[in-house]
Amino acid sequence: MKRLNKALLIAIVAPFLFCNAQGFIPYEQVPDRYYEKLNFDMPKAPLPQIPNVTVSITDYGAVGDGIAMNTAAINNAIEAIAKKGGGRVIIPPGLWLTGPILMKSNVDLHLEQGAVVVFSPNIDDTPFIRRAGSSSYSRMSLIYGEQLNNIAITGKGVFNGNGQYWHPVKKEKLPPNQWKKLVESGGAVSKDGTLWMPSQAALDAPKYLENLRAQKKKLDSADYVATKEYVRPDLLVFYDCSTILIDGPVFVNSPKFTVHPTQCSDVIIRNMSLNNEWWAQNGDGIDLSSCRNVLVYNNVVNAGDDGICVKPGVPNRKTKDLPACENIIIADCIVYHAHGGFVIGSESYGNARNINVRNLTCIWTDVGLRFKSARGRGGLVENIVIDGVWMKDISKEAILFDMSYGGDTTVDVSDKSRVPEFRNITMNNIRCDGASIGVRMEGLVDRPVNHIALTNATLIADRAIILQDAQNIQFTNIYLRFKQPPVLMVRNVQGVDAQKISFPEGTSLYVRAEGTGTRDIRISQQDAKNAKKAFEVTNGATNEAIIIK
Hints:
Layout: H1 6-22, E1 54-56, E2 65-69, H2 71-83, E3 87-91, E4 94-98, E5 101-102, E6 107-111, E7 115-119, E8 128-129, E9 138-139, E10 143-146, E11 149-155, E12 158-160, E13 169-170, H3 176-184, E14 188-189, E15 195-197, H4 200-214, H5 221-226, E16 236-239, E17 242-247, E18 250-252, E19 265-270, E20 273-275, E21 286-289, E22 292-297, E23 300-302, E24 308-311, E25 325-335, E26 340-344, E27 352-363, E28 367-372, E29 380-392, E30 397-402, E31 421-433, E32 437-442, E33 449-460, E34 463-481, E35 484-502, E36 511-514, E37 519-523, H6 525-528, E38 535-538, E39 546-548
Parallel strand pairs: 1-3, 2-4, 3-6, 4-7, 5-10, 6-11, 7-12, 10-16, 11-17, 12-18, 17-19, 18-20, 19-22, 20-23, 21-24, 22-25, 23-25, 24-26, 25-27, 26-28, 27-29, 28-30, 29-31, 30-32, 31-33, 32-34, 33-34, 34-35, 35-36, 35-37, 36-38, 37-39
Antiparallel strand pairs: 8-9, 13-15, 14-15
């Protein structure tokens, strides 16, 4: 074999020599307790191994005055250190205006305390892209990486997505004086006066897209450019990447979803703060789309839509035969304003299993624990364990299963494709002070929610428990305080075991049972004695459906 060219040999081995000489960035290790007492086997997500060398974006001409555009400087710094084998790119204190940031493998983008990265208000600075293997276009996220390995976003600085240049705003979500000020600032308002958009072109775009789809036209790049003022970017998307660490930064004012790893594996998200306006349309916090082996801990989320959400959509092209979402731990997090504190769905057609949620605080969220899907979007979601959820001032349900999400309650039992099936879900040690409904479960006639257990819960709400199209539901040691009886409302439910249910003595009714499909509702005699009337049956339900033990 001919001797390798000396220059070629150096090019091949230099990165490895470089890493060995410098070592890797010493990230804080994940405490073992997060992987203990799981009800499933899960490999630990590794920390990235990134060479412990640094460059500053100022070395590449960046100016932190809030005026100079730093897109080229930031991306050139990332590109240069990646070509040398990787390392840390420092963004020092300052106000750094930029367009989208393109990440590379083996790079840590580190925001020092006092660094504020502000993304450009000019929407033309954020291009449309086509991901690998896709024929459709999407707006590039403000921080983006595709098919990368060993990447990190760290530090105590701030990423500001300048979302006000992108957001639609619903009138119902703003007080009158704020709505008036928004309309007077420019933009366009819908004919019915209920929706504001940043421009008339953005307001007209949905109708334009609807017409194209009615023609069954495949959208091309020109179509997307025509709707550029309407199609929004996420703040951060890593697509088909592995070994990811997000540790410490603050993310605010995202145009759409905020932190959105998609089809990724071995992901750690920790010590992060996220703050979107509560009225920010689609302003989700953390969205785990088709991800595997994920640890999310010690984060604070304030979102305009769902807070921490598992979205089992299209599986990774490399693992098509596996659940889209698998082996996910969420622990020690706080969610303030959000449509749901912890959420699964609404797309679940990729299937999900092995999810553990513990020590979650929800304050002011619309819903605490939110499971949602619908026909055409559904799949199998199973083996979920939730332990320790602390809720205060929840505006709607503390716990919600909604299998007709989106308002479509039409049941077509002949449609067997993408039907949601949520089963084997256990919730322990749940406390809620203030909600409209403690628990509401609504499955489908042909696919009821199944094998759901709630143990050791305190629920203070206007209404207690409502079940429809559910099977094999277990309530044990539940303390309830509510305004409107009954304690338990069931409609077309098969198999409820309610034990040690505490509610105010003298409550007018314990169980109301409806529907010909209702049967095997088991309640204890001791609990039933606390109500003036143990049960009543209506709309086809029979006395035999209720079993008093």
